[in-house]
């Protein structure tokens, strides 16, 4: 999946069922920390488990996770957001990997020139 810095991107993930989702976690393995992109358990979001670089930039597409939709929206993408994202869902036991997405962030190479008055 490709995007540009400053844009918003939808990272899609679906659970086979929405019946009994106990845990949702999105990870980025190259963060090299115990924090998450997003961590949701027992109908509650755990902001303190979120990596600081994702604070106020990630949200579930559908808070009710209807139809098993556990996709997330990553806002204001930066070059540092490039990499692999993994979506896990837990029902009763250990969370299962549902999807893995590689996000490529490319600068368009365009730049804007603004002329100041008097130049």
TrEMBL record:
Q: Among its keywords, does the record have Membrane?
A: yes
Q: Which GO terms describe its molecular function?
A: signaling receptor binding
Q: Which UniProt keywords apply?
A: Immunoglobulin domain, Membrane
Gene Ontology CC: one annotated term? external side of plasma membrane
Q: Where in the cell is it found?
A: Membrane
The organism's superkingdom is given as: Eukaryota
Output the PROSITE patterns linked to this UniProt entry.
Answer: IG_LIKE (PS50835)
Q: Which BP terms in the Gene Ontology apply to this protein?
A: regulation of cytokine production; T cell receptor signaling pathway
According to the record, the signal peptide region is none
Per the database record, which ranges form the Ig-like domain?
Answer: 1-104
Primary residence: membrane
Does the record's keyword annotation contain Membrane? yes
Q: Which InterPro entries match?
A: Ig-like_dom, Ig-like_dom_sf, Ig-like_fold, Ig_V-set, IgSF_BTN/MOG
Identification of the protein by name:
V-set domain containing T-cell activation inhibitor 1 B7-like protein 4
| Species, as recorded | Channa argus
